[in-house]
Amino acid sequence: MTRTLNNRAILALRSLALLLCLACASAAQAFDLQGHRGARALAPENTLTGFERALAIGVSTLELDVVLSAEGVPVVSHDTTPNPDITRDAEGRWLQTRGPAFHTLTLAQIAAYDVGRINPASRYARDYPLQQAVDGERIPTLAAVFELTRRVQARHVRFNIELKRNPERPQESPEPEAFVRAVVGVIQANGMAARSTLQSFDWSVLKAAQRLAPNMALSFLTVQRPRFNNLDSGVWSAGARLADFQDAPAMVAAAGGRVWSPNHLDLSQRAIERAREEGLRVIPWTVNEIPDMARLIDWGVDGLITDYPDRLREVMQRRGMALPPTAPGP
Q1: Structure confidence by residue, pLDDT tens digits, 260-269
Q2: DSSP track, 288-310
């Protein structure tokens, strides 16, 4: 009798473990609502306030960008140099030109910049009239973003971390291997490896990640527009060229990709079908208009990156889609 009970208990535990695994797999494949740079249209981009706003709205993933300081510490910035459209100096004056590369600046120098509002004279201000300014907001470290999510108990949220490197201006960034080591080190030190994805337009960074952190999830960013195409020359795509492949999904798959993140303007329903044939998940960027959100969901994308996570939640709610949890806001 005792042996029978033990066997039943073992079977029950195995069944429970299987159910938990299936539930985790299902959650991992759920529609991915990604807040672009936090909630860029609503709060200062790539700031703790912006990330807190996105978590309060309810996102499944925080999309953010990182560069390295002179000390090799990952800090959160979309640009490899301070951007005059969103940056004031320690005296509160708008930068007139782009500042020196972040990887030449110390953490103390970076912390002196105020990135809490958009320069009202910029086109950026016209593009995002709903963004609420927060004067005194500083450029955070990646570790501080992780700490924020722990503080507000956003245990569900994932991190889509773009490593910002321009191979046409390599002097503005660290080498790919050093960049990846620094970012992965902070991710692992904070216990966030299972919840993090690395993405980049510079595929040499992703190739370095495949070598140095083979278990890290990766997303291959692409853009195929007249003013910028990162697939044509091989400079951005680690030597590969689109002319040698059937299409972008084939190129991503050949590079070892499992997630394709294209500019949404480059997408068609056939392109998504091709991505499926190549075994890719598709998460386009940056989708801000409700009709585009609805159309792409109809086409079967796996998630969307948006400056307006509130709009995307409304679209999802109207369709009866599962919504990510919310977390306490500012």
Answers
A1: 999 999 999 9
A2: -SHHHHHHHHHHT-SEEEES-HH
Q: Indicate the CATH number for domain 32-318.
A: 3.20.20.190
pLDDT of amino acid 39:
98
The CA dihedral of 3, 8, 13, 14, to the nearest 10 degrees, is: 100
Q: Where are the domains of the chain?
A: 1-30, 32-318
How far is C-alpha 29 from the geometric centre of its chain's CA atoms?
16
Q: Which residues of the chain have pLDDT under 50?
A: 1-5, 7-28
Length of the chain: 330
Distance CA 77, CA 104 (A): 14
pTM score over 0.85: yes
* Angle at the Cα of 165 from the Cα atoms of 162 and 251, rounded to 5 degrees: 75
C-alpha distance across the termini of the chain, in Å: 58
Helix (H, G, I), strand (E, B) or coil at 172: helix
C-alpha–C-alpha distance, residues 171 and 81, integer Å? 11
Q: Which DSSP category does 81 fall into?
A: S
